[in-house]
Amino acid sequence: MAAVPAAVTGPPWAGVLPPRGGWQPASGLPAPDELRAMVGAAVAEFRRRTGELPAERRTRAELDRTGREIWSRTVGDTGLPVRAVHAAQSLGFLRPATAARDTGLYSSGTWLRLRTPYGSIAVRRAGLGGLGLSVR
Known about the structure:
Layout: E1 24-26, H1 32-51, H2 60-71, H3 82-90, E2 104-108, E3 111-116, E4 119-124
Antiparallel strand pairs: 1-2, 2-3, 3-4
């Protein structure tokens, strides 16, 4: 007689993966140098704002709140959060030699994908269409 192993579970996000196909070009993505400048400005703003906090207010909660505010901003009207561009730069996907023609923004359903010659970052938009709903 064989024993059946116990079920393996993990975090809920582990089952949420971007689609394999159906990606369509999306407009409005700035050039790579503008994206790098945007990330640099966001990092500088975070450092400035957190550096200005008095010691008693420099808590994890306050740092997280400030970070969420800054990194959740979108790149123009694209819906792409600045945190996705920061991830792409941190991973080396937005190298200085990256040309605008080699970088693109794509969408598929509730997903956005920032594509470069060195890799892609996929993010799931909150909500479906203009209804502001999310399926989990």
